[in-house]
Amino acid sequence: MAFNQRRDAREAAVQFLAHCEVHGRCAPAEITDDDATGFWHMRSAMRKVRELTLELTKGVLTHLPEIDERIQRHAHHYEIPRMNPVDRNVLRLATYEMFYRLEVPPIVAINEAIEIAKRYGTEDSGGFVNGILDHIKEEVKRPLRTAAVPERDAVATDDVPVVGDRPLTVDDLF
User: Fold this and answer.
1) Can you give the C-alpha Rg of the chain in angstroms?
2) How far apart are CA 158 and CA 135, in angstroms?
């Protein structure tokens, strides 16, 4: 998937997360076809972007308690529910990508989050997001500038990293 499509999917995921909050959908199973259809009526996108957006959104919601706990540890003096919705959802998406999307280098997730926060947030959003993610990245137990595994659609199965006799998993890294 091209860089601009990934950026578009990330931006849409931040918006979809806000959409889910407004409609009280806090778990992946709660996202209905009507939610997705309603969201895509407000925002157009190509099929691949829509698929990645839904994957990112459901991933964040699946791991929301852990993600929010990580953010809260580093968001001194800021309660997550009181944060600007854009900042909150940008932080959630970037934290998800840093810890659960091994094909995304953590530095890329941080840089993308800052750019999205600057574009859709307040005047202070870029610095706020950068400050919190800079602290969160200290918890990452993998190289910050490289992907832990190659992208799924660009890899042969014999190129997947292994630990002993099994494929590398998230648990091996954190």
Assistant:
1) 16
2) 35
CATH of the domain at 63: 1.10.940.10
Give the predicted TM-score (pTM) of the model. Answer: 0.82
Residue type, 89: N
Helix (H) or strand (E) holding 162: strand 162-163
Q: Assess if residue 30 is contained within a domain.
A: yes
Digitized pLDDT (tens) for each residue of the chain, 174 residues in all: 787 999 999 999 999 999 889 888 778 888 888 888 888 888 889 999 999 999 999 999 999 999 999 999 999 889 999 999 999 999 999 999 999 999 999 999 999 999 999 999 999 999 999 999 999 999 999 999 999 865 555 444 445 555 555 666 655 554
Please give the residue range of the domain that contains residue 17. Answer: 3-151
